[in-house]
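Something for you to look into today, if you have time. Could you write out one complete protein record for me, on any chain you like? Leave the record below and I will have a look.
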Amino acid sequence: MRPSPARTASALADAVRSGSTTAAAVVEESLAAIAHGDGEVHAFVTVLADDARRQAAEVDRRVAAGEDPGPLAGVPVAVKDNLCTRGAPTTCGSRILEGWHPPYDATVVARLRQAGAVVVGKSNMDEFAMGSSTETSAFGPTRNPWDTSRVPGGSSGGSAAAVAAGFVPLALGSDTGGSIRQPAALCGVVGLKPTYGAVSRYGLVAFASSLDQVGPFATSVVDAALLFDVIGGHDPLDSTSLDRLPPRMASVVGDGVDGLSVGVLTEHLDGAAPDVVRRVHEAAEACAAAGASVEEVSVPEVRYGLSAYYLIAPAEASSNLARYDGVRFGLRVAADDVVAMNTATRTAGFGAEVKRRIMLGTYALSAGYVDAYYNQALRVRTLIAEAFATTYRRFDLLLGPTSPTTAFALGAKLEDPLAMYLSDVCTIPSNLAGHPAISVPFGTGDDGLPVGVQLMAPALAENTLLRAAAVVEAAAALVDGDGNAVGVEEQR
């Protein structure tokens, strides 16, 4: 099945601001699509229909009063369920937060509302963002709209599926080791992980605090840039927020890649499926045809990214998740004393993957092992960042696959955690370095499912990244029905 995505966010917002349609009508269309199709896809954990209608009515009131509601006027948006929404459930895909309604909005959610966007629901996710398939959610798996026997990727699979299915034109996700880019690739949408610190994490429920980053899903690069412009920028409520204003990205998307240098990362091609590798080479040819210089480059240090990540991220998770004790909020399982209550609550509230990572992280931080495991992983992280810095002195951008394969079958990797972890081998290095990266859909694989190609850039180079992403996106539109890229001369 090839899903029919919703109209672009840019077009919808323009129509609402001009009065040619209303926010109420746009939101009703989105809610109807969710009601019709989400029973099969399960992109949402909570649909906020009444609240969405109130938000839409306020947008329409402002338009009628001659005011500008903002750049996302009336645009329906799905929000990953680890982003706090005032008065509405925020579960992180876990039973342990049962009944918790945050008393505040995450900064990115507040900025959505200020821009006129309408939050229509909270999207499904792997529990506490720990997973690559959205199968570890306590509320059941999300299914890929292209083929509902396949996974949508993870951990932000609900957000990716909601955009791919046409329920919403935009969604927010979080990316700790690839959780925006990998599901974007598997669902055939655009997914951007910004520079660490470029988007506020205030109100994002923490998994691994030195890696987590909020970013957009969209049906187009222009829409992804528009959403990034809305949510990006300094936030005094986030101590890791960068104290500088980013340029407006939507204005540079069409500037092209003439004169830029692109390195095709050979290490990420080595383990990828042949049909995915073919698409990457076609995307590289498209960049060359548009005026970029393209050549292969080796960064051997990225091979150690997966090993370093699965020590650093679980270690941070074991610390962050210690707060779920059955005392202050969420689930509480009654027991005879506090220790028994805490144990019973965490046993009942956390799923198998979360428990696995808490145990891994606690072990890596334990006395006698912290130097051998956690501290060594930090040294490897530094080596990867230094290797990228050296490479970016030669290249403006790096190009490779987002995921080694297209979407795999539901259940195929649940019993093999290592195979599941390998799904993020191409995306993790950018998180370790804190650099921006984007996945752009580029045709399909031999199985007819979407392939995503990944562009990577140095810190705060989102403008260059989005320029190149638009070129790749335009070339992808020229891929013919047989799955072959149109030749360079035809592109011109």
